[in-house]
Fold this sequence. Notes:
The protein is an alpha+beta fold and 406 residues long. It folds into two domains: 7-165, no CATH class; 198-392, YojJ-like (1. It is built from ten helices and 18 strands. It has helices at residues 7-29, 41-55, 90-96, 178-183, 198-206, 243-249, 251-254, 258-273, 330-341, 363-368, and strands at 67-70, 79-87, 106-112, 115-122, 131-136, 139-145, 152-159, 162-165, 213-218, 235-241, 280-284, 289-294, 308-311, 320-322, 346-350, 357-359, 373-378, 389-392. The strands form three sheets. An eight-stranded mixed β-sheet has the order 2-4-3-1-5-6-7-8, with helices on one face. The longest helix has 23 residues, at 7-29. The protein is globular, with a radius of gyration of 22 Å. Residues 354-406 have low confidence and may be disordered.
Amino acid sequence: MTEPAYPAARAVAGRIHEHFVDHAVRARQRGRTDVGIEPEVADIEAVIDAAFWASLRREEGLTPTISMALLPPERAGQSIRFATELPLRATVLAKIGPAVERPGIHLGVWRRNGELNVWGTTRMIPAFCLVVEVVASGLLVIKHRNDPFGKFVNVAVLEGDQIKVVDEGFSRDAECPGPVKSLLGIEAPGRAAGQVDVLVQLAASMRVHHRGGALLVVPSDSETWRESIVSPVLYGVDPPFSELADLIKRESTESDSHEWQEDLRRSIGFVAGLSAVDGATIINDRYELMAFGAKIMRRRGSAAVDRVVMTEPVEGSETTYLAPSQLGGTRHLSAAQFVNDQRDAIALVASQDGRFTRRIARRQLLRAGHGEIAGRFAVPELEHARGFSVERGGEEECDGDEFHGC
Length: 406
């Protein structure tokens, strides 16, 4: 039985096609040869349609989590090819879904003799190859990869009849923080193409333990951040643990080494794992570990955050104002207070409820309102991980009472 058409697939296919053609053309103009074949509008619509209906099915009582890459087998490197290709149908996808549940494995889909078929599975995909991922029932993410570590950049998120297409122009805003630029696929100034964005990697790794957590990034040339931390710190690190910092220093000469890449993954996983401990993990801007399990308090003389300005890097989104209580639990409140008090710091917050957001405190709004922190950037799902915030401070100081959080 053929499922009815999924209206959102047709509505968004043309826009996604434009995105991939634009990126592929620009990449080739820069001399890149590892670029995927631009997908046709009809193929994009068909893959999204099949993925949506497969997401509503159950296989042994479970929702299938499927990742499909639209590419011919000849472009997939070493891959598994089925002796007989399978038709691109929801029933087929739900049955074979358990084979590609683990991260980094995709079902390969391509048109053969006028029909889209599933030809096998692959771990290797070229840059700017369209990937459609089933995250949950009715929730799809369209994305591509453009760096050697397999970090995916979201293009659109579809949830039922809701369509969110990432606005790449958003990243051109001077106030858009570096981690958000990276997640939107824009290289930050001063960072070479393919260079590791450590904060993005840490943020993605923090969600693995599913306990929620906070990571504070403080300046290495100042100790004022300690004024916002309850003393003594239960798990202070002295001297600072520098494994991750040392690896980053060697990136320019060793980044092509498999050994270096594995060491980096393990180091990032170790630091991110500490965020599972109650309290905040603290690193400096050289990526040296300073402490974990730290309790945040309001800096003496600072005011409480009164409201947050929320915007999304999504086409057609509008700015909204939120009370601090609408941010989430104590972890979000204390992180917002920390960056309000420590304007040269960044906070990454992973929520247990799985929502991914990024925050930045914009300078002009901090001056416009007493104790106001601006710019909670809510970015669509990232690789199954829903629950991430980036907050950045500005330059002003306020008066207020002490605040204690975790």
